[in-house]
Amino acid sequence: MAEETENKKTEDKKTEDKKTEDKEALKAQPKSNTLMIVAIGALVFIVILIGILVAVLIGKDDHNTHESPAPTTHGSPANVDQHDAHQEQKPKSPSEATRKLSEIGTIHPLEILVVNLKSDNGRRYLKTLISLEITDPKLSIELTLKNAVIRDKIIRILSSKSVEEVASTKGKQTLVDQITGALNSMLDTKSINSIYFTEFVVQ
Length: 203
Fold this sequence. Notes:
Number of domains: 2
Strand content: 15-25%
Number of helices: 6
Oligomer: single chain
Largest sheet: 4 strands, antiparallel
Number of strands: 4
CATH topology of the largest domain: Tetrahydropterin Synthase, Chain A
CATH class of the largest domain: Alpha Beta
Structural class: alpha+beta
Mean pLDDT: 76
Shape: rod-shaped
């Protein structure tokens, strides 16, 4: 009888030990599942992140290859702000395109000019704003004092032109050359390098 009791106790202990082991195994299983889920999530996140980076880099390369920079005309002689659909912008010549701002002389702005143009189709006029590029900053004082003479000379040149003559790129360059030459002929030294149109509207 004592032996049976002992056997029963031993079996009960084994059963309890097995139950304890099963409980511990069940407790350990969720931990390993959680770790597995976290690892898979991290891996998916890294793959998505790499995909985004690759897409951005490829997109940048395509954007740089296919998009050409918009041309600018600031700093070239006879720059034209477009206010009229009939006007064309003057493309930069190679020498002007490579000119640095530090190489450009002093800029002397003139007041706005409104000039009647020669026209067979009714009254047409040009509204323009011109700045002179001068080599000697001291010349700016003389130009200011003799502003009326300078304006008169420019008005005479502009009013002798037709709409067709001033509307083209070549026509604007001709104006630049003629005005620069006419003003330099009035000075002791050829101190005017060029002129710049900062507004040019034909109506």
